[in-house]
């Protein structure tokens, strides 16, 4: 009989829907936190709208492209690269103009005059004499 009474009590407790206020408060706070987190994620990663003007033609081409179309694309790219290289070469081959200031003709002074002016000869004679 004891087991039957215990089982009845267990079933009555199980069927009672006691709602803990603190549990419900925590559940609401958790929902709010999840909602705020989702708003932040949406603000940081906005969904990108693809416009028809900004789409690249090469992105929209089918997986299998006929060889003639691909060859034309490659030729166009090669021509573009060749033009860019030609422009670089033209810029590099242009001579750079450097202006050099005119050279002023210096007076011709003899070595003896320079030595006298600098006092080199006198120092040598003084050192040799002592």
What does this structure look like?
The chain is an all-alpha fold and 130 residues long. It is built from five helices and no strands. It starts with a helix and ends with a helix.
For the sheet with most strands, the description reads: none
Strand content: under 5%
Helix-strand sequence: HHHHH
The count of helical stretches stands at 5
Helix content: 55-70%
By helix and strand content, what is the structural category?
mainly alpha
Q: Alpha-carbon distance between the termini?
A: 140 Å
Concise synopsis of the structure shown:
This protein is mainly α and 130 residues long. It has helices spanning 2-15, 21-44, 67-93, 111-118, 120-129.
Task: Tag the structure with descriptive keywords.
5 helices, elongated
How is the topology of this model organized?
Layout: H1 2-15, H2 21-44, H3 67-93, H4 111-118, H5 120-129
């Amino acid at each position: 009989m004891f087991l039957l009474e215990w089982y009845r009590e267990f079933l009555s407790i199980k069927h009672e829907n006691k709602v803990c206020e603190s549990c419900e408060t925590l559940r609401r706070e958790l929902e709010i936190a999840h909602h705020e987190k989702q708003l932040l994620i949406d603000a940081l990663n906005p969904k990108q709208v693809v416009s028809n003007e900004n789409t690249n033609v090469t992105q929209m081409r089918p997986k299998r492209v006929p060889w003639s179309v691909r060859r034309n694309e490659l030729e166009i790219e090669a021509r573009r690269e060749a033009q860019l290289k030609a422009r670089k070469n033209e810029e590099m081959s242009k001579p750079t103009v450097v202006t050099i200031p005119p050279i002023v003709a210096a007076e011709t002074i003899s070595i003896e005059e320079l030595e006298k002016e600098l006092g080199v000869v006198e120092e040598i004679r003084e050192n040799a004499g002592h």
